[in-house]
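task queued by scheduler; priority normal; single chain, no ligands, no partner chains; default sampling; output format set to structure tokens
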Amino acid sequence: MDLSYILNELGEDRAAYFNAVAPPIIQSSNFACKTVEEMRYVLQHYTETHFYSRGNNPTVKMLEMKMAALEGTEQSIAFGSGIAAIAAAVLSQVKAGDHVVCVRKPYAWTSKLMRDFLPRFGVEVSMVDGTRAENYAQATKENTVLYYLESPNSFTFEVQDIEAVAALAHKRNICTVIDNSFASPLFQNPAAMGIDLVVHSATKYIGGHSDALGGVVCGSREKINRIFSSEYMTLGAVLPPHDAWLLLRGLRTLPLRMERVAQTTRQIVAFLQQRPEVEEIIWPFLPSHPQHQLIKKQMRNNTGQFSLRLRADTLEEVERFCDSLQHFLMAASWGGHESLIYPAAAYHRKDGYKPSMPFNLIRFYIGLEDAEYLIKDLEQAFQKMKG
């Protein structure tokens, strides 16, 4: 399908809602049947009919159709948050006694799911360095049922060879799940590389305006229906119609936003490479990065996330730099219109607690502002860094 058709027309039966250009928000919890026979049919076909909005909702269904088309999968299913989608995708594939191999250093709440939640129910998890596909093979056991990837992964952006890991999994009849939020479906399509379930935090690039939460799982009809009939309907972490409508609105401008973010990020990184205050830029799209060729193979363009380590001797220097920024917001998440920083220094406490991340590490997200506007802000913060 053409991208323009997916974003602007797919799933939108305008004749059914007065030829309105914008899709409606079907803010109804349930849907009526005219006869007992009709209700009997609906109850037997609840995966594809409208009966109760915890199951199917017309506004949410539009989003699901578009996301499946963008990822090149048969179906998708939408959740109320990214971690709800991740948890449902993982839980749908495991039971007590199973074993999971997960990339090391994923999103924090994915790590919590793997390290703390799954073991409570008898599921063993091995965390591996995902930069070498053979690490997945070496960690595999007779009871391994799932490989989990996040490429690139959070904060330090290590890249996994998606095609190689998927090939390993298929030889062993192991399901693969990947978090594709970093790349967006425009710049990377893991299903085409052999991945079974592709997950997105739609809160990020899909929404694009920092005003809606959501998550999506994309995959085969069999796997999505399996999630629908179990984790989705039972746990109830559904996407509200209004948030689905906001995410649909975000999709309209996704290509324009992604191109803008990609271009501005390249300009910001080029500026930072010249600054003596910067010790290291962690960004796999730099030619000097050891995984540069792999990410070029897997992704069609760069996105807006990178990290850097400041050349700072003290925590106070890092704090002065971060606190002096006027146009970068200090906040979680990314993918919206606003540029952000997330400093690891916030985890270093005054009582002496030190996490594994170095105090001088800062994750950046570049939004839709002009590059020069952001560069001027960085320049004045660098000037104040040394006090």
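post-processing summary
- The chain has a mean pLDDT of 96.
- The chain has 14 helices and twelve strands.
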